[in-house]
Automatic annotation (TrEMBL):
<comment type="function">
    <text>Histone-binding component that specifically recognizes H3 tails trimethylated on 'Lys-4' (H3K4me3), which mark transcription start sites of virtually all active genes.</text>
</comment>
<dbReference type="GO" id="GO:0042393">
    <property type="term" value="F:histone binding"/>
</dbReference>
<feature type="transmembrane region" description="Helical">
    <location>
        <begin position="138"/>
        <end position="159"/>
    </location>
</feature>
<dbReference type="Pfam" id="PF12165">
    <property type="entry name" value="Alfin"/>
</dbReference>
<keyword id="KW-0812">Transmembrane</keyword>
<keyword id="KW-0862">Zinc</keyword>
<keyword id="KW-0156">Chromatin regulator</keyword>
<keyword id="KW-0472">Membrane</keyword>
<dbReference type="GO" id="GO:0008270">
    <property type="term" value="F:zinc ion binding"/>
</dbReference>
<dbReference type="InterPro" id="IPR045104">
    <property type="entry name" value="Alfin"/>
</dbReference>
<keyword id="KW-0863">Zinc-finger</keyword>
<keyword id="KW-0539">Nucleus</keyword>
<keyword id="KW-0479">Metal-binding</keyword>
<feature type="transmembrane region" description="Helical">
    <location>
        <begin position="97"/>
        <end position="118"/>
    </location>
</feature>
<dbReference type="GO" id="GO:0006355">
    <property type="term" value="P:regulation of DNA-templated transcription"/>
</dbReference>
<keyword id="KW-0804">Transcription</keyword>
<dbReference type="GO" id="GO:0005634">
    <property type="term" value="C:nucleus"/>
</dbReference>
Length: 161
């Protein structure tokens, strides 16, 4: 996938303009990152080679994920995820490293949602902020400790809200 794919958000359309569209975009990107950090963790871990340059974990609006170099144009169209997630991989406990990537991914997801929300009016922004959802950090941390059972129950709670 190339930079134009990331610029477009991989949603195939224009930027989300309503609270519902922004939340759908957020949930799809979050789902992609959650899958990378849990179900596809072996593939994700292998792609984050510390010998490579600064890598980022991207979650897209079509629920695909990618480990890639950041966009080269400055400024970028969307906020960029944490840079250099691969460097700490071998220097940390695997579970702690995945939790660190999850924390950075949570921050990035919120920044993308609020970037889109800048166009909303006051009431719409309030609606967006008041939407409850589990942070990726908690889900990944619990997945590493407790496995799929807790993860599935937590996912069902966050999807229903």
């Amino acid at each position: 996938m190339d930079a134009s794919y990331r610029r477009a958000g991989a949603g195939g359309g224009s930027a989300p303009r309503t609270v519902e569209d922004i939340f759908k975009d957020y949930r799809a990107r979050r789902s992609a990152i959650l899958r990378a950090l849990t179900h596809d963790v072996e593939d994700f871990y292998a792609q984050c080679d510390p010998e490579k340059e600064n890598l980022c974990l991207y979650g897209y609006a079509n629920e695909a994920w990618e480990v890639a170099l950041p966009a080269e144009e400055v400024p970028t169209e969307l906020p960029e995820p944490a840079l250099g997630i691969n460097f700490a991989r071998d220097g940390m406990n695997r579970r702690d490293w995945l939790a660190l990537v999850a924390v950075h991914s949570d921050s990035w997801l919120v920044s993308v949602a609020f970037y889109y929300a800048a166009r909303l009016n006051r009431n719409e922004r309030y609606d967006l902020r008041s939407t409850p959802i589990f942070p990726l950090f908690l889900l990944v941390r619990c997945f590493c400790c407790c496995g799929y059972l807790f993860l599935l129950s937590a996912l069902s709670l966050s999807i229903e809200t």
